[in-house]
Give the backbone structure.
Amino acid sequence: MARTLTFYFPLKVSELDALVTSFQKEFDELVKDSFTEEELEIMEKKLDALAAVYVNPVLEELTFEDFEADEIHRNFFESCKSTLLLENLPYLETNPFQVSWLQLFLGRFSDFLADKGNLSALVTKKEFLAELSRLKNMDPLVRPAKPEPRPLQHGVKAPVLPIDFLIVDVYKELGRLHESGKMSAALEAVAGFEKARRLYAIMKEGKLDANSLLSLSGLNPKDFDDNLEKLKFILKKV
């Protein structure tokens, strides 16, 4: 693409300017939230190379005849009141941040016309974004998000695996201690066992299945099994 891009919108200059200002802040925050400080330092040159952005009214002397454009676009062009000019555009093939900037901002509009710098043709939103879609944006650079934790499953279902039977046994002991008013004594008994105490703190709040308990405890599977067994043994002695 050319080193200059101009986009034509039917918005008032003040309206387009406000949208650009708001988006610039959003994009800056998106980049900061998507990368570490170390990563941003590495990508600093590409970020600093983003095009300068200017919002202006459509030049009075500019007419539809100045373009080699399909007549079907005449009415839309003549309704345009403002332009968005990007100057000193970096090579989009090597700057994924500029590609994302264009995709995210321009995708918000129902339509626009783009002049890619030579006044030879006006390109529609669909055509322009299709061309951009063939280029690399910043998405592949963003660290994959951690998978969302599975929803907690309240209530212990009928035991199937050995771990399920062990969990049921621990909850039986907790129920017994609660009914006999010995929960304080149980807490004292597990106080010296950090991992068993962690499980006790979770399980005394209500019944959960094995997957939910493992996720909340932060233990690895072996420690989880071992300390459930230890907790059961401790509680039985209270």
